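Sorry, can you check?
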Amino acid sequence: MNITANIKMADVIIQNHHLLSVINRFGIQLGFGEKSVDSVCKLYNINTDFFLDIINSFNDPDFFPKQKLKTYPLNLIVDYLYKTHDYYLNVKIPEINSLINKLVESSSGETANAIKLIHKFYNEYSSQLHQHIAYEEKTVYPYILKLEELYKEGNEEQKKLFVSNNKFIIKDYATQHENIEEKIYDIKNLLIKYISPEDNFILCFKILGQLAHLEDDIKDHSEMENKIIVPKVSIMENSLQNI
């Protein structure tokens, strides 16, 4: 069932508690009482339609309003993606790392050695994710925002100068997400196939659950970038290059 503007925000979380992390990215804090989704969005100065499209995309794997999402300004989408990066780096990655550390500390023998190896793979993945996000935030997103600004308001001379000074094109970036997603899948597989956590099976289940949650989140994140941002930016690039 799709979440609508008139549903109480509290009921959204009760329906699917995993959405709490997404809601928080919009700056919304708990304590909204009986207010509807629309009322809370207006209180926080959030575009209600955009909020609903994002929330429903997370709530229902089959829901992805591609054409509708393409109508939103890129600066609105990019702002949301920045906040998602913050969630990965400052919440989810450290949280999983802490859980794996606890599993290492409470294990012994061959199990401990296997977990240490998985921890090494996870740290390598974390480092790669940090590098990927740094590239997006230092290169890709500023390029997108400047391109959109010139596309909407720039004069012909400014547009020509921007094209001539930028060797980067969005298609160069579009293929970089697959390896990021595959590595989480590989770590999950290693845990499932080769770890016998004995008394720590509950902790192991928690790690698998958090990895699965991160994997799904990054897939949604990549889908937004590849299916919405890349096509929109390509159209703007072609328009400026044809001047």
The mean pLDDT is 88.
